[in-house]
């Protein structure tokens, strides 16, 4: 099981070292600290909006997860800095990762 396969299925997972438990972002098969293999954590992860911008009628947010990594996600609702959100939709489109939050 790898990150991109799960993302293609619409599943958001977080790579974690099987040995030292470090969150690995960007996703990789091996830990950049202890060089052991990584596995994928599953669950309903929440993140915090730390900044956002708007283009036309769409909002794009920088969301921080597990005080460890950040990713860009789209939302249809007006975001609030500090708001706790979760990923509702994700995948790969035209070779690019996409994430949507609520």
From TrEMBL:
This is DUF35 domain-containing protein. The lineage of its organism: Archaea, Nitrososphaerota, Nitrososphaeria, Nitrosopumilales, Nitrosopumilaceae. Gene3D superfamilies: 6.10.30.10. It comes from Candidatus Nitrosomarinus catalinensis.
